[in-house]
Amino acid sequence: MIEIQNYVRAESLAQAYELNQKKSSAIIGGMLWLKMEKKRVATAIDLSGLGLDMIEETPEEYRIGAMVTLRQIETHTGLNALTDGAARESVRHIVGVQFRNLATVGGSIFGRYGFSDVLTFFMAADARVELYHGGIVSLEEFAGMPHDRDILVRILVPKTKGHMVYLSQRNTQTDFPVLTCCAAKRGEAVCCVIGARPMPAVCVRDGDGILAGGIREESAVAFGRYVRERVTTGTNLRGSGEYRSILVEVLTKRALLGILEREGEAERAD
Amino acid sequence: MEKKLSLINQPIRKKDAMALVCGKPVYLDDIAPKDCLIVKLLHSPHAHALIEEIDTGAAEKVPGIEAIYTYKDVPQKRFTMAGQTYPEPSPYDRLILDRRMRFVGDVVAIVAGENEKAVDRALKLIKVRYQVLEPVLDFRRAKDADVLVHPEESWRALCEVGADNRRNLCASGVDEDGNLQTVMEDCEIVLEHTFHTKANQQAMMETFRTYASIDTYGRLHVVSSTQIVFHVRRILAHALDIPKSKIRVSKPRIGGGFGAKQTCVTEVFPAFVTWKTKKPAKLIFTRQESQTAGSPRHEMEMRVKVGAMRDGTIRAVDFYTLSNTGAYGEHGPTTVGLSGHKSIPLYNANLEAFRFQYDVVYTNVQAAGAYRGYGATQGIFALESMVNELADRLGIDPAVIREKNMIREGQVAASYYNEQMNACALDRCVARAKEMFGWDEKPLRQDMGNGKVRAKGMAMAMQGSGISGMDVGSATIKLNDDGFYVLSIGAADMGTGCDTTLAQIAAECMECDLDNVIVYGADSDSSPYDSGSYASSTIYVTGKAVEKACRELREHMSVIAAGILDCPPQELIFAADGVATADGGKKVSLGELAERSMNGNTETVQVTVTHSSPVSPPPFMAGMAEVEVDMETGAVELLDYVAVVDCGTPINSNLVRVQTEGGLAQGIGMALYEDIHYDAKGRIAEDSLMQYKIPTRLDTGRLRVEFEGSYEKTGPFGAKSIGEVVINTPAPAIAHAVYNATGVWHRELPITPEKVLMGILRREKEE
Amino acid sequence: MQIELWINEKKVRAAIEPDTLLIDFLREQGCSSVKRGCETSNCGLCTVFMDEKPVLSCSVLAARADGHHIVTLEGLKEEAEGFGAYIADQGAEQCGFCNPGFMMNAIAMFRENPDPTDDEIREYLSGNLCRCSGYEGQMRGIKAYLAFCRQKGGQA
What we know:
The complex is a heterotrimer of chains A (270), B (767) and C (156). Chain A is built from ten helices and twelve strands.
């Protein structure tokens, strides 16, 4: 269990940033992961007084504060309409409602966890992160950056129209995923994000133009193989690398076929 | 007592229900004195090691630390923590603290202090130098290994269980009947396979916990979340090497047990601290401690050989079980017995010969103990899987092969201690389950056309009702003012509802309202002796004691009434509100009778009866599972589970149902995802509820439960047991359904999606 | 450090350590219904309301609760008795240890969604583990309670 010597409810991001420059400090997100760590924290910095618990909407994007909970993501109408419900699907398996009322988007993303549903979804949503010191960077880039003492302030999700499908494989319904897969199609561009490999999520694009003629059964199968070849997987308690690689192919194919179905539904609705 | 039963087989609320749903402070940590010393344990990081040096100097200087104890401070008489009738079959292989560490999690030192922070700090400051030894981690190689888990001279087995510490053997033996070799050779088909089940955790929501204090008379009062107050008293006396008269053990409400609390996992530590310091002390295990230093199911490997004829007649069973008791032998010699003795009798009808052999080995992993099913669960998974495979090979419907071979009412089972089945509705359980499930209408396998396949599977199960000729149940019933009764019991309600069901039996016998019976227990000072609540004994054994005690009390009450009414007692009729003459002419109310019993009375109105049964009538059940397998990911979804149980007469129709549903859910978890992995050093990976996945309500599917009654004449109102049998069918039924879907038998639990998919791919490759 | 908060609508001032967890603070304050079943935020036994939302009190710093409203089962006596009776009528409370957390989260669900489907019930309560019941008895109790509420014409 974590030991905390000082608790500070930050009054500004500047103060929080300054306090966080010491190695012995820690930002408290939802506390769910931090709580279990066996370490001593000299100063625990709470961002909960900074108004970062809101999802703001502009004509171009959703601006999601770092302290927004996963439950807010799950129940947010606009975000779920934009993502075909992928937002909800990506978090609804995470432990339970009470857990998701605490777990924050900022904590989930900043940790760049190798099991993260949240990272998988937002990466596929083409999100960017706003860092207090580092400014705005794409989430895809952020996922590969070394961990530093910056503060994640917001997640920015562009309102680009398109379709998304989120899938995960789990050994039990509320367990960590064995693999996550989120496919998105905006315009003609398709990307597929694979997470819980068990390494931070990665994004695969259609470099070979497999889907150039549109998503069909055969091209979806081929793209599944394509993604499998490009995504490294590993072994942990929940599954072997070999099993995960098979899942990469299956879930990618299914996610694409899900998008195809949504395209059909959208056309019929028009 | 031949009137119509009014309280039996009714959906009666548990007496403590409203207190529990409203969150009243009734559990151990709610009632422990606020000034208790906090006790925590330092656990071994090594699977096998000797403590070369242990320095507690710095730790003792932490402000607030009261005491730190190491192996140098404890009595040197070995004991067992298993809650069993003395002399225990489990070997005496424990000390409170030992110099030899036998698993990752074994106890190095006890720290007691004023608050948690001080104790945590002290734990970090204890310096231990270990001589790390080679561990025995593979239970298949433990017997006669070079490395011994218990080389000590002071190890001893009190009973003849085939134990030998010089061979890493906790028990071994054989039981057989008929000429196995001859019958097997004469069979037209012989199948043989090996099955493997893991050290599943009971994972009761309340972890192990105990507090102790010194009472007014200088005695040690231990309050514990335990199923076995009397065994705890004896075990503590052995461990602390003090007279039993110096110890009182009682229990509050218990947050679940499932057998875990049939072992003294935490009791000795705070008891030792309190006895030494004379200060109250409590130990609350963390979930991690419960998962790593608890008392899980015995891991077993079972080699089963079944001999049959082409028409499906099962003639011979050869069963060998290798059981892993881990570092200590709690329940090792007994659990293994059930793997054969509570599986083989299911196929009694045409059985000509059987052999059941077993070895129970010590290894350097967490010690196993008692978990609902107690070995039967493991054995039934193996044998039921074999019978399903036999049916498949012979092209016989799996229900039909069972109808042909199953044990039936009236039969005597050589494989079940030659007991005769007085009450057995297994045939009706299977028939009713088939109807509910639509067994004959549903195909074994149905391709859903979307990459998913639906399939069905089935299994049968049995258990016992108490330990025959050993378990003792007692009840004291006392008449009080106004005519209410106090029922004292030593059995432990651990959420099972026995306070209520035993009161139902008493109220039925006394022909009064349930509210007129107060239940008190369990307390080693004041309760009548009871072995405790385990082995599915409480309703069957203690329930019978209640019935007999009530009958005697009625006679005593009639004597008092006869005095008041001035007529012979045998002419009186006992009724709900009093005692009357046969013609109804004269009557004394219960209240008046009670008043008289307290005024110039010499007739006793408190009766204690002790009961034990020479037989252990098995409850039976049938289970059927429908699963949908995702053939591309291996995911198994349980769509429907039908269970029909014969527990004799159900005493409380609600409680037998929730017992069944709860047991099924645990069985489903065991079948599909509850897993245990050890790393190369013997450390358990699943040391939390984050890693050890018990079912959530999204995982269990639909459970449909019904009962087929039978009447067990040796049980109270015809009752047999319910608590354990209900965990035994899911693993084999689900494994069967997964086979029907995928063509692959899974003989190791749990059957995870990865195993299912890899199985499918392997089979496709082979074809 | 000092905090000031409302526990079951009663204002409380108290001195705490910076790393005191809300669960331990609440138990010290006499809210014994709040139970701990794990250390990994998985079991749901410690569920309380923080500003009307169900949260795991094992994962909230007492310091963070400063200025907030906390409600435990002790503060919901009427609702607990009303709904609890339906659980009791199924025998589904069994050992009872998970009940306070289950009751809290079920009450949160009734407030958020007074007319849930079976699937919605399972999903909302999936973070409440129970090892005794197999969940079916709890489901029967919830449905019987909801039927009663509908018949009464009011909300759950």
